[in-house]
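ingest -> fold -> write
write: protein_1
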Amino acid sequence: MPQNIAEFRIIGRVGRITKREKVTYVNIAANYKRRDGDEWKQDTLWNSVVCFSNVASQLELTEIGDLVHVTGRVRESQHGENNDTTYRTELIADTFAVLAKSTSEQD
């Protein structure tokens, strides 16, 4: 029987790493081209990925500017009560790999 899934894949550059007690948040830039009249322009979209201990060893080697490949699952969450509830879509990393180190580190 088929399984219902919600998953993502991002290949992009790391912009920020925020470590907390049990979780690390990694902002990853993904670039897309869009048409603006007769010209094509590049749009950068930032994705906040939630990383738990299952990818901790890969995160130790990751620095800002590195090109990474991340896959995982999409999760909806809510916080607050009654009329003060906020909803959020979270990207939870299942795999995390550094594809290339930042070019600024190699200069």
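write: protein_2
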Amino acid sequence: MEAVIRKWGNSPALRLPVSVLKEAEFSLDQPVNITVNRGRIVIEPSNKVAYSLDELLGGITPDKLHAEVDTGAQRGQEAW
């Protein structure tokens, strides 16, 4: 299949046919990683996992808590 790179705003863009997305098992709004390998553009599903704040806070247990840490006197304008 042949396609043409066109301008979209100030960036180049390539429209992907639905048949290509289906064959690659991609979906709209799916996060992807884009890399360049030997002069080829490679688009792969992102394996980055999204966590919610509730999930992250739910993982806090008493054995994972720590006391405050004193980093010394104020320097510069850290606290105004």
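write: annotation protein_2
The beta strands are 6-8, 11-13, 32-37, 40-45.
The longest strand covers residues 32-37.
pipeline exit 0
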